[in-house]
Structures are given as C-alpha cells and as structure tokens.
C-alpha cells in the first residue's frame, strides 16, 4: 500500500467516527450532581497559603507538632509506667524530697536531667521516650516533682 492509500483509509475511518461522536451529546447536569462531581475530583490535599482561612487552622496543627509537649503529656505517655508506682526503684511522681535528693547528689537539676536522659540503672535512655527532646524530658521531670533551680 502506498502512503496515499493509507491516508485515504484514515480519512474514511475518521469520517465514519465523527458522526458517531457528534451524536453523543453531553448529558445536562443538575446543580446537585455537578457539586458531587466537583467534590469527587477535588484534590486530596488542599494547598493553604498564609492569609487563607484554611492556613489559620492547619497552622495550629503544624505548630503543635513542632512545639514541645507538656511535662504532663510526656509523663502520661512514657513515664507513668514506672514513676507512678516506683517500679524497679524509680523515684515516684510527687516525691519531691527524693527528686531533690537525687538532684543535689549530682549537682543540680540539669545534671539529673543529663543522667536520666542518657539512661540509668533499670531506666532505658530517655525513659523510653525516644522522640523526647531534653526540654520535654525536663518538663516531665518537673511534672514528677523535680525542682528546676
Ligand atoms: C521502664 C521504667 C521507667 C520508665 C518508663 C521511666 N523511668 Fe525514669 N527511672 C526509672 C528507674 C528504675 C529509675 C531509677 C534508676 C536508678 O536510680 O538506678 C529512674 C530514674 C529517673 C531519673 C533520675 C535519674 C538519676 O540519675 O537519678 C529521672 C530524671 C527519670 N527517671 C526521668 C524519667 C522520665 C522523664 C521518664 C519519661 C519520659 C522516665 N523516667 C521513664 C525507670 C523508668
């Protein structure tokens, strides 16, 4: 077959298709179904720019993630298992005298923080809070009764 015959065949094929496509008219949509489609094809994540309404909300979530957790939150999640009952000889929450004694023996709150953060005796490093910053670890210590001088 020559190129010309090819072109001619193509023209015949297309000529046969066009009328069919022309017959397939779009179905008119009512408002409800149009809204439904808009929602269905909406992007999964919406980009928030500063100043947008959505930016105020998502900003709060984002900053929560980067802000240090409170001593109470860290304690309740990680430290309570041992430090509420004094398991394995852990100084108990609220036993300020014991916390002070330990801090004084080492030379202060920060020294106690360092030693606890590194792990001591039966306590694993960071008191099992592997994501805890020293600041968060210290807040939990204060929540348990250690006095920051
Ligand atoms: C698996 C049990 C366990 C968990 C969980 C735990 N601790 Fe402890 N912790 C201990 C024990 C036991 C000691 C006493 C260690 C010793 O004196 O030998 C201790 C001691 C400490 C001390 C004193 C360290 C020192 O040098 O005397 C600090 C500070 C401390 N824990 C902080 C925390 C914080 C903060 C958390 C939570 C983030 C935590 N611990 C979670 C068991 C635990």
From TrEMBL:
Domain of life of the native organism: Bacteria
InterPro entries, alphabetized: Cyt_c-like_dom, Cyt_c-like_dom_sf, Cyt_CIE
Signal peptide from the UniProt entry: 1-24
Keyword Cytoplasm (UniProt): no
Domain Cytochrome c: 66-148
Xref: PROSITE patterns: CYTC
Keywords: Electron transport, Heme, Iron, Metal-binding, Signal, Transport
Keyword Cytoplasm recorded: no
Full protein name: C-type cytochrome
Cross-referenced Gene3D superfamilies: Cytochrome c-like domain
Pfam families (alphabetical): Cytochrome_CBB3
UniProt lineage: Bacteria, Pseudomonadati, Pseudomonadota, Gammaproteobacteria, Oceanospirillales
């Amino acid at each position: 077959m020559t190129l010309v015959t090819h072109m001619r065949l193509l023209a015949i094929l297309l000529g046969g298709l066009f009328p069919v496509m022309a017959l397939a008219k779009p179905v008119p949509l009512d408002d409800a179904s149009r809204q439904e489609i808009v929602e269905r094809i909406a992007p999964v994540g919406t980009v928030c720019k500063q100043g947008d309404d959505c930016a105020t909300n998502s900003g709060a979530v984002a900053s929560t993630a980067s802000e240090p957790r409170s001593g109470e939150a860290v304690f309740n999640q990680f430290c309570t298992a041992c430090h509420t009952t004094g398991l394995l000889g852990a100084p108990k929450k609220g036993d300020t005298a014991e916390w002070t004694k330990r801090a004084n023996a080492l030379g202060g709150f920060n020294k106690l923080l360092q030693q606890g953060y590194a792990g001591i005796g039966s306590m694993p490093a960071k008191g099992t809070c592997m994501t805890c910053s020293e600041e968060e670890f210290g807040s939990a210590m204060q929540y348990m009764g250690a006095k920051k001088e």
